Amino acid sequence: MRNIRKIELILLGILILVFVIMSFLSKQFLNVSAxxxxxxxxxxxxxxxxxxxxxxxxxxxDLSLASNLALSGIIMGYLxxxxxxxxxxxxxxxxxxxxxxxxxxAVLITRLDIPPLLATLGTxxxxxxxxxxxxKGKGISGFPQSFLNLGKGSLMGxxxxxxxxxxxSIVIYLFVTKTAFGRYLSAIGYxxxxxxxxxxxxxxxxxxxxxxxxxxxxxxxxxxxxRVGAAKSNAYSNGILSVxxxxxxxxxxxxxxxxxxxxTTLAVLIMASINAGxxxxxxxxxxQEMIIAVILVGSITFYEYVGRSKVNRSRFTKQVKDxxxxxxxxxx
Amino acid sequence: MSEILRMQKISKSFPGVxxxxxxxxxxxxxxxxxxxxxxxxxxxxxxxxxxGVYEADSGDIFLEGKKIxxxxxxxxxxxxxxxxxxxxIVFPDLSVLENLFIDNYSVPSTGFIxxxxxKKIAVEAxxxxxxxxxxxxxxxxxxxxxxxxxxxxxxxLKKPKILILDExxxxxxxxxxxxxxxxxxxxxxxxxxxxxxxxxxxxxxQLADEVTVLRNGEEIITDEVSNLKLSDIVKAMxxxxxxxxxxxxxxxxxxxxxxxxxxxxxxxxxxxxxVKKGEILGIAGILGSGRTTLAKTLFGITPLQKxxxxxxxxxxxxxxxVDAINAGIVYIPEDRQRQGLILQENVRxxxxxxxxxxxxxxxGFIDKIKEESIAEKAIHDFGIEPPFPDFQxxxxxxxxxxKTVLSKWTLRNADVIIMDEPTQGxxxxxxxxxxxxxxxxxxxxxxxIFISSDFNELINMCDRIxxxxxxxIVGELSKTDFSLEKVVALSTIEDVRVPNNKVSNxxxxxxxxxxxxx
Lengths: 332, 518
What we know:
- The complex is a heterodimer of chains A (332) and B (518).
- Chain A has 332 residues and is an all-alpha fold.
- Chain A has one domain (4-14, 35-309): Orthogonal Bundle (ABC transporter involved in vitamin B12 uptake, BtuC).
- Chain A is 72% helix and 2% strand.
- Chain A has helices at 4-25, 32-39, 43-57, 65-81, 87-110, 116-135, 145-152, 160-178, 180-190, 192-197, 202-228, 239-249, 261-280, 285-316; strands spanning 140-141, 154-155, 158-159, 230-231.
- A two-stranded antiparallel sheet of chain A has the order 1-4. A two-stranded antiparallel sheet of chain A has the order 2-3.
- In chain A, a hairpin with a 2-residue loop joins strand 2 and strand 3.
- In chain A, helix 4 (65-81) packs antiparallel against helix 5 (87-110) and helix 12 packs across helix 13 (261-280).
- The longest helix of chain A is centred in the last third of the chain and has 32 residues, at 285-316.
- The model of chain A is unreliable at 308-332 (pLDDT under 50).
- Chain B has a six-stranded mixed β-sheet with strand order 6-7-8-3-9-10, sandwiched between helices. In chain B, strands 16-17-18-13-19-20 form a six-stranded mixed β-sheet, with helices on both faces.
- Chain B folds into three domains: 3-238, P-loop containing nucleotide triphosphate hydrolases (Rossmann fold, 3-Layer(aba) Sandwich); 256-328 and 414-517, P-loop containing nucleotide triphosphate hydrolases (Rossmann fold, 3-Layer(aba) Sandwich), CATH 3.40.50; 343-409, no CATH class.
- The radius of gyration of chain B is 25 Å and the shape is globular.
- Chain B contains 18 helices and 20 strands.
- Chain B is of the alpha/beta class.
- Classes of the chains: A mainly alpha (332), B alpha/beta (518).
- Chain A binds chain B through residues 1, 178-180, 183, 186-187, 190-191, 193-201, 257, 313, 315-320, 325-332, and chain B through 13, 15-18, 38, 40-41, 216-217, 239, 299, 301, 320-322, 324-325, 331, 333, 338-345, 349-350, 352-354, 356-357, 360, 364-366, 385-386, 388, 390-392, 395, 408.
């Protein structure tokens, strides 16, 4: 049980702190358009971290997302290059295919009862392998300019990819907080048996989130391909680390139950700004990855500590904030 | 007989709750001292102070006349105080011997466990206390009472002067409990002081020498059991005279609501059952008789293999709890902590989880104000304490957790309410509340299926009782035929089977004796 409000506030504080530090490190950092350009690099991360959060809240995980991104990118590229299908139709087909890949995960998890960690570890390898097998490392480029605009263009100075990320986050945030679906997610994460006995359609909810994760990985593939200008089988190869790290830093509990879209979004922004600052300060790629790993392990340690020492008790004493609390003696 | 434990003016408070107020408690060696009270009365807090888990805010503890203070639970164990907890804490994959020494391998300096020595110690202890357990067996093969004995023996191996037993009979049948009592009397004769916690007051009259009643953290009476009547204890526990423990109800039985024909699933074979409007149908049977399977099949958790379920004449195709709930069948499960509630969430979340449709606006969004008012009404109607919608369910007492489960299922207008052991581990006062609620549901025309191991409550609450044994219906008793002996005989004795509902001679002394002879 985590006090997620508190975590969101802490994250906001960290984000401001990172901004202050980074603006000292690099003069460019406070230049809005330069900052947006760099943030744009994290759009795919932001889009995939949203469904990852929902999955982690139910106590699951999807390690195959980044591989699914690579595979659906390749499929889009080949549909366009080999079969001459219009690139936008190819993009829609690729997203649909990514949804199917998500459905396959869901079938492994809900029908064959394979633990999500193992099921998606398998498909992580399988989807990446398929992408490599189809493409054999050649890659596809030369996409039409109209398509490349998606990744590079902007509306009133804000890159399209950031707008798409924001739209997805807001829609899913509203859906999760305002409808029954969000309740179902945390009920499943805390106590799946209890959720089943309370009439929660557990299987359907799980299928929905894994398919959603697939669809959004497909969308991320389209954005990534258009931004990079090429469909590659090694696209986003270490990306899954960042996606999991973002959700966990955002307060999602891998043991299930806790996690919010707002927390994850703040976490993605923190990671993106650290990344941006490091790029602007010319720090090596390998160091960047180590920093993400430190964030992942560090935030789990921190939340476990905070979770145990403070949050539980603050829940319990929520009713008695006065100095002289009314003593509750059982019966009126 | 000499005094071994004296606790004077013990007080303890938790944030917002005064758990114990100036409680005195004395235990003599060779006596069984019962500790009773409603859920939340302070019994477990007192026991946890004795066993070193909590430290008292004020007050003194004297062990054999010497004032002591425990640093932690291990300290109390080495001072000679052993506790047998309510849950059956055994490791199913380990052998009985391994289980016995799990917290006390007393490893020699070589670092290797000397199993031969341990076995010798175990055998000696078993002889001393006349308990016999199969040491080499895996613990998973033990029956519930054997597991309880294993736990008791594990406590006894620490050579305690004081043995604390928390609801030891909760998982046992009547015969198994009797066997346990014989063992306890033997221990008592060896001079061990026993603190015995139970909700079953009849047991206390069979077993205990003294009794202390707690209510709201205060000591109400301490006296010898022989000076007290059952009604005195009940009155002390709940602070008022209990008019009738089992409230009366005028049954108004209507048409058939739910009927099951030729149902087979899991252990169940060819079951035919009918429940009518306004009727409370009791399902009796021992553990493993298939009573919970029946409930789970109706609720869509255990798949139906064969047979048909009809509700108000329509055939149902129940594949999941969602189908059952939509059709109008709800289930109050036996394990309220694991199945009934999401403990980490608050009361409001739990009450609205199966009822989110009722809290929605027409656009499908949750209306927080409506949700809050539904939760507040449920808390008020069922008297859930403390009455805060955002109180975490984990911290509610057992009785209030059960009331929360009841309230979440009775908000919606279900036709059939299945209750599986709704009163297990619950104090007298709350039990009485639950009975009143059941009567109210019935009088509102619901059909109630009531599963219980407490045959007394079945006899007093039901209009009809069906007895299951090994997945088969072995008898059906109508109200005029009710007797405890008949229910016990039907549910436990092999070869008692009544065709065509003829039950007149079942449970007669003659019949029972014949059955015993076999």
